[in-house]
Amino acid sequence: MKKDDCIFCKIVSGEIPSRKIYEDEDMIAIMDLNPTSKGHSLIIPKEHCRDLYEIDEEIAAKVMKTAKKLAQKMTDVLCCDGFNLLQNNGEVAGQTIFHFHLHLIPRYKDADNNLLKFTSVKLTDQEMDNLCQQLKNS
Ligand code: 5GP
Ligand code: ZN
Q1: Is this model's pTM higher than 0.90 or not?
Q2: Is 10 helix (H, G, I), strand (E, B) or coil?
């Protein structure tokens, strides 16, 4: 159901304009208003859901299928050299719009110094083993 104060619900309904590159019965893909690279776009399910925890499994699977198709098409059209898929959940993870979306980010060898880099945390072997057991056995 549409959420009244949600920017992406308003984009889906057409109340807020957007540059749409794809649409089907379940989702749209639009160009990001503040692109991090040339062609940066977002896949947005039409039905409001906050994040990965809330999204319907079938819609999530459809979103990923569409991401594969669009990544190929965008790579062919934009001649990018690589591609990131990014999906933020929660403020601490960088989510700013609380309607699920998947970032499609084309990457370019020469015109791109904006690499998404992770710094590593130091964990002992024991801590790693404990985490592994915890995740495997829950
Ligand atoms: P998040 O940080 O929540 O993963 O990403 C939200 C994204 O939505 C950002 O990349 C931001 O630039 C984009 N965005 C925010 N408002 C609008 C808008 O009104 N239109 C479009 N096309 N993109 C938006
Ligand atoms: Zn919404």
Answers
A1: yes
A2: helix
Q: DSSP letter string over 17-28?
A: ---EEEE-SSEE
| Annotation marks residue 101 as catalytic | yes
DSSP track, 59-121: HHHHHHHHHHHHHHHHHHHH--SEEEEE---SGGGT--S-S--EEEEEE-SSS------PPPP
Give φ, ψ of 42 to 5 degrees.
-135, 135
Which residues of the chain are modeled with pLDDT < 70? 1, 112-114
Distance 47 CA to ligand 2 centre (A): 7
